[in-house]
Amino acid sequence: MNTIKYKKNEEYNVAIMDLTHTGEGIGKVDGFTVFVEDCVPGDEVRVRLTTIKKQYAMGVPIQYHKVSPLRQDPPCPYFGECGGCQIQNLQYDAQLKWKRDHVVDVLQRLGDRSDAQEITKDVIGMEDPYFYRNKAQYKISKNGKVGFYQKKSHHVVPLDKCIIQQDPGEDLIKSLEAAIQDLKITIYDETNGKGSLRGVVQRLSKATGKMMLILVWNGDVNDQIQAFAKRLAKENGSVASIYCSINKGRNNRTMGYENHLLYGEKKLVDEIGSVRFQISPLSFFQVNNAMTEVIYQTVDRMLDLSGKETVFDLYCGMGTIGLYLAHKAKFVYGIESIEDAVRDAKENAAFNGIENAEFFHGKAEDAIFLLKERKIEPDHVVLDPPRKGCDEVLIQAVMDAKPKKIVYVSCNPATLARDLQMLSAEYDVMEVQPVDNFPQSMHVETVALLARK
User: Fold this and answer.
1) What span, in angstroms and rounded, lies between the C-alpha atoms of 28 and 15?
2) In this predicted model, what pLDDT tens digit does every residue of 267-308 receive, in sequence order?
3) Radius of gyration for the chain, computed over Cα atoms and rounded to the nearest angstrom
4) Kindly report the CA angle at 425 between 423 and 429, in degrees rounded to 5?
5) Which residues fall within 8 angstroms of residue 453, CB to CB, at 6 or more apart?
6) Are the beta carbons of 354 and 277 closer than 8 angstroms?
7) Pick the catalytic residue: 244, 316, 390, 411?
């Protein structure tokens, strides 16, 4: 494709056919791909090109000739400026359809699966796709306003509420901003490393209605942050605990590794199904309680446990899946490389009185070998890796263990497709069930069932 004829700031008519994985509309100009902000499939727009590359261009809409029937007015006034949501302008049924189509497309292209359309089920969505998140990471502007980052930038968009949070945050945001001003708290400046407050993390319990606040601080605990915590606790009645998370590093990491309890209870308690979990500041806990339970119910259904099976839960984190399955399994062995998460898993097993679960710290492939030396072998394996997917050595170790079933829980269809291709050497992929764990965003969770050939 000769791109010389396309120039920055030129205008073209573009019909939007699809979406990128980050939410931009995809169209063509004489076969040349153009990515357009704030568009949905079915829009026909006049586009001004802002960036020209060899294989594609990027642009912004300047006039809508035809508005897609799939488009809706975003209910959030900050949509388009705040980077938290990508597709609030797309009707929810269309969001779910796009996510299924995306999973099918990735399985076909990257996983070379001709049966992708057949094995992929419709996405399980939410009845109300708002007010679902149990965690918010609020950023603070230089003038002390609370908000989220603008898309693809570190510019803070101030807001007075967020409609995808369990608690939209109106009262908390007002309280934070007033306290920052009154106590003269300086805001961290990432350009020079100066300033105290880097951000505020809010964790919410669906089960109790309580919240944990984590004040991310560029410095040691001092009288100022103690006064900040005391005031927030007094003004926000649902606060169960407040931590100071010390992060003095010149980095983009949200929280530090050193966390000091300033007020209240050490842990926040939440639940998935009948299992209760104690959550620490650094605990990984899925942000959508309702759909996380749907994911775990799907894992449970696929495994179809009778009480006689040994289950290996790999990349187990704080043990959420393994502990959820323990009531139906003979025994669950969880393996996780993050030591703090393993400690959380053991404490949560004790907290729930679950005695048929054991958790190990280390690489999963090494732990599988050690368990095999103890004559412990899995009937079934659950894989729940991070976005980068499974290590090839681990996949081989799992296949060598010869479980009857593997259930793969994925947050990234691309790495799922890659890993299923390797596992298909010895396993048939029976079903892929997408679940909408993150409505209004481009993310989709998938649960895949594999049976040994």
Assistant:
1) 7
2) 999 999 999 999 999 999 999 999 999 999 999 999 999 999
3) 24
4) 55
5) 426, 427, 428
6) no
7) 411
Tell which residue, 320, 328, 276, has the closest CA to residue 301.
Answer: 328
Per-residue pLDDT, averaged over 335-359, amounts to 95
Alpha helices in 304-385 (DSSP H): 320-325, 339-351, 364-373
CATH 2.40.50.1070 describes domain 135-272:
yes
> Over the range 311-344, which residues count as b (16 or more CB within 10 Å of their CB) and which as e?
bbbbbbbbbbbbbbbbbbbebbbbbbeeeebbeb
Binding annotation: 286, 315, 336, 384
> Which pTM does this prediction carry?
0.94
Coil, helix or strand for 115?
coil
Taking 60 as the threshold, does the pLDDT of residue 253 lie above it? Answer: yes
- Residue of 121, 99, 76, 137 whose CA lies nearest to 23: 99
Residue 156, token pair as written in the block: 């803070």
- Give me the residue spans of the domains in the chain: 11-66, 135-272, 288-452
The amino acid at 187: I
Q: Is the CATH number 2.40.50.140 carried by domain 11-66?
A: yes
Residue 1 has what pLDDT?
A: 47
Higher pLDDT: 210 or 152? It is 210
* Closest-CA residue to 299 (of 431, 425, 399, 132): 431
Active site residue 411: yes
Q: What is the DSSP string of 152-190?
A: TS--EEE-S--TTBSS--HHHHHHHHHHHHHTTPPBPBT
Alpha-carbon span 251 to 314, nearest angstrom: 30
CA dist 410 and 433 (Å) reads: 10
How far is Cα 431 from Cα 287, in angstroms, rounded to an integer?
25
- The partner residues of 427 in beta bridges, in order of sequence, read 452
Task: Judge whether 11-66 and 288-452 match in fold.
Answer: no
Class of domain 288-452: alpha beta
Positions at the binding site for S-adenosyl-L-methionine: 286, 315, 336, 384
